[in-house]
Amino acid sequence: MFARHAFVAVLTLSAAATAFAQQGEVIKRIENQADRIQAGQADGQLTDKQADHLEKNDAKIHAQEKQDRAQNGGNLTNNEKAQLNRELNRNSRQIRRARHN
């Protein structure tokens, strides 16, 4: 009986850790992109208008993640993960292009 409860507890903790890690990945990427935007502003590669636009894109992605998680009990479906990743990749490319023009 104890082994069964321990197994269930381990599975629950594992699922929670996985959900936390997935959430952390999106936040980490958004923070990284924010650092890149700030660096672009600091060295004059980005105007304030460009930086605002790129930061708004990241804010929309973060809001979408929060909404998706709220609808799914704190988790993301595979399709939602893929969509968020595509959006993060798109914004990352926009940051790169804006900084290297």
- Integer average pLDDT: 84
**How much helical structure, as a percent, in the residues?**
over 70%
Query: How would you classify the helix and strand content by structural class?
Result: mainly alpha
Order of helices and strands: HHH
Task: Describe the main β-sheet briefly.
Answer: none
Q: Count of DSSP helices?
A: 3
Q: How many beta strands in the DSSP annotation?
A: 0
Q: How would you describe the shape?
A: elongated
Task: Write a brief caption for the model.
With 101 residues, this protein is mostly helical. It has three helices and no strands.
Protein topology:
Elements: H1 2-42, H2 48-71, H3 78-99
Helix pairs in contact: 1-2, 1-3, 2-3
Features:
101 residues; mainly alpha; elongated
What would you say this structure looks like, in words?
The chain has 101 residues and is an all-alpha fold. The chain has one domain (20-99). Helix content is 86%, strand content 0%. The protein contains three helices and no strands. It has helices spanning 2-42, 48-71, 78-99. α1 (2-42) packs antiparallel against α2 (48-71), α1 packs parallel to α3 (78-99) and α2 packs antiparallel against α3 (78-99). The longest helix is centred in the first third of the chain and has 41 residues, at 2-42. It is elongated and about 40 Å long. 15% of the residues are buried. Residues 5-17 have low confidence and may be disordered.
